[in-house]
Amino acid sequence: MGDQDKRRAARLVDRIIEEVAAWPHVNTNEHRFEGREFTLGPREVGHVHRWGIVDVPFTKRLRDALVEEGKTEEHHVVPESGWTTRYVKDDDGVEQAIWLLRLSYLYHVNNLKKTPKGGEMFAEIDVADELAELGVSEEIRAAFERRGVMES
């Protein structure tokens, strides 16, 4: 990757970082391999690398549905896991990466809302409405819902 390509990738990644860091209760921390990770408490929502790779964890079932629909790819290092990889090369890639990170964020929010502290912390986030806004398929929604229960 040449210097111009590296600078372009870094600008695209910066847009992702700016967007995701602004979500309620998201913390950003340094991640290995020139990365920045996004967390909700101890839960990792995903991370980005300066050269334009975005890695996002999901359950294996949810990851499989996302890959099948062409929303992402299996992780470039651990393809048998629930992790996904998205390569960001342009504006469309930025939007797709933010979409995946938002889905991961909502997955964690949905589970945290089932706890007393999380229910209070995330009361303003309507997970069902946001999933509808993201335009997720029934397959992804079914894989998203843990034990068939989703908080709104």
**Coarse morphology:** globular
- Cα(first) to Cα(last) distance is 44 Å
> What is the helix fraction of residues, given as a range?
40-55%
Widest β-sheet, arrangement of strands: 1-2-3-4-6-5
Report the sheet with the most strands, covering strand number, pairing sense and barrel closure: 6 strands, antiparallel
The fraction of residues in strands falls at 15-25%
Specify the number of helices: 6
Question: How would you sum up this structure, described in words?
Answer:
There is one protein chain. Strand 5 (73-74) and strand 6 form a beta hairpin. The chain has a 6-stranded antiparallel sheet with strand order 1-2-3-4-6-5, covered by helices on one side. The protein has helices spanning 3-21, 60-68, 91-112, 116-121, 127-134, 138-144; strands at residues 27-31, 35-40, 43-49, 53-57, 73-74, 83-87. It is an alpha+beta fold and 152 residues long. It has 6 helices and 6 strands.
